[in-house]
Amino acid sequence: MILNTPSVDANRIHARFSLDYPDAKGPAFSLDVDVTVPGNGITIIFGQSGSGKTTFLRCVAGLEKPDRGRLAVNGDIWQSETTFLPTHKRPLGYVFQESSLFPHLTAKGNLAYALKRSGSAVTSELYDRVMGIMGIEPVLQRYPDRLSGGERQRVAIARALLIQPRLLLMDEPLASLDAARKQEILPYLERLRSTFDIPVLYVSHAMDEVARLADHTVVLDQGRVVAQGNLTEVFSRIDLPMRFGDETGVVLKGRVVERDTRWHLSRVAFDGGELWVRDGGDALDRWVRVRVLAKDVSLALASHGDTSILNRLPVEVAELSQDQDEAIALVRLKTGPAYLIARVTQRSVHQLKLEPGKRLWAQIKSVAIVR
Amino acid sequence: MSFSEADIAAIWLTLRLATTVTLVLMVIGTPIAWWLARTRSWWKGPVGAVVALPLVLPPTVLGFYLLVAMGPNGPIGQVTQSLGLGTLPFTFWGLVVGSVFYSMPFVVQPIQNAIEALGERPLEVAATLRAGPWDRFFTVVLPLAKPGFLTAAILGFAHTVGEFGVVLMIGGNIPGETRVVSVQIYDHVEALEYAQAHALSGAMVIFSFVVLLVVYGYQRMQAPLGMKYRV
């Protein structure tokens, strides 16, 4: 007999949840998702508030009990028709949105709580590595109310790492912080990715976090999955039900192929073209991630050399779509296998007679290396 | 101001009763408080009301029903008899049972309030750190709700020391067995022994005042810690 278990894959996370809140008081909400993501790297669960992303994460953690569900993490069944592992039996780490440190324990006491319950003994090497990455050694003797918001979140992340999880869940860990604190923590998260080989499910509604951290993306809207796939692919789509306004844009992965020291610029080659970007100190041959916002892309029928714009790419119109603003259209542009999005007025669409298949030039006003 | 031997016996008996009742109430009151704090069941209202009944009922009413229930034909009486324990009225353990009901709200409500104030989050956090249910209770609930538990124990103890009506109904007046301080004072007054009544009553006033002072002082000291969790 061949068992039909396609979802039990040694290097995949498969989650299928169905959950109803027929709440008479609040708005009725239902979550119905079927998600398969790679069992490594950072997967961002993206969506606006109320999209069900936190509920999804809570289902994965077993904090919410879906009516029907199935969850397999890298070959282990956490939930099926017959089993439901309670949260404390799931080998996961969870970082909550707001501070979740126990107020009756010092930072060190909070870490000790995890050390004591970790699946296997934490080696001093791992401990030192976590301390080094999160940079919290100087504040260990303090109680949570004597820590800054950023320090609290770093201790909470360290605590989640010391439990030695096989899956790390993060629920908007930066949302409670101001922009400056956020910039302070993002590098720690990047180091976390490069140092630990733990798959991460990361809930966020912030585009900048997504562009910087995500390897893989799942987009939720009103409790349903509207897109899932790799970051570049998902964010080059313009047919998703939600609109991101000024934040609309694509993320491209490319390599630094030239550094122009005179003008402090780098040339980044991606599959589908090349872009000049401000030199961010990245060495030659390094892989970088660049973000091209749709509002910075304008269209021209001919290549103009006499402008201040550095980057011009020959593109082909692939698809047109209406922005949430009536006057604005989104144009999806194909360059090689890659896509750009341009945000232009409907009048320009009419004047340039834009339609799928039309060839023209994309002028890119600014490009930012996000990583 | 001096205490007679009978006074000392009454004081000693009262302390023994209050200690026993407090211990029993902490053990059975905690799960009740836990359930009341966290259930969304329809039963929360009725159960909460039953627990709070002694706050409003005359102690004689409570004592009367307990007397009937624990008597030879009452449901509790039949159980204790079939267990070979005899009947409970007019015994020390009868007083314990009566006092447990009488002091229940004073123990359940502070614990319930403390657990409600704690919320779901610390328990969820502990669960994601692999702490099982008992582990969560002892390492998270108990330390964070400690002020509630201490208040409950102190109030349960003090309220049992202060009871009179229930004791008189189901305990009677047996020296060394059911004659607690409040009954002893009553006896002194009946016998017109005002000096002795003064001594015991004065001691009770001081005791009760100190207890409340400690509870309120402690609650004020702890209040800021309770707030800290809500970021």
Layout of secondary structure:
The complex is a heterodimer of chains A (371) and B (231).
Chain A: E1 12-21, E2 29-38, E3 42-46, H1 53-61, E4 68-73, E5 76-79, E6 92-95, H2 107-117, H3 124-134, H4 149-162, E7 167-171, H5 179-195, E8 200-204, H6 207-213, E9 216-221, E10 224-230, H7 231-234, E11 249-260, E12 265-270, E13 273-278, E14 287-293, E15 297-300, E16 311-322, E17 328-335, E18 338-345, H8 346-351, E19 359-364, E20 368-369
Parallel strand pairs in A: 3-8, 3-9, 6-7, 7-8
Antiparallel strand pairs in A: 1-2, 1-4, 4-5, 9-10, 11-12, 11-14, 12-13, 14-20, 15-19, 16-17, 16-19, 17-18
Helix pairs in contact in A: 2-4, 3-4, 4-5
Chain B: H1 5-38, H2 44-56, H3 59-70, H4 75-82, H5 92-118, H6 121-128, H7 133-144, H8 146-161, H9 165-170, H10 181-190, H11 194-228
Helix pairs in contact in B: 1-5, 1-8, 2-5, 3-5, 5-8, 6-7, 8-11, 10-11
GO molecular function (chain B): molybdate ion transmembrane transporter activity
Keywords (chain B): Cell inner membrane, Cell membrane, Membrane, Molybdenum, Transmembrane, Transmembrane helix, Transport
Function (chain B): Part of the binding-protein-dependent transport system for molybdenum; probably responsible for the translocation of the substrate across the membrane.
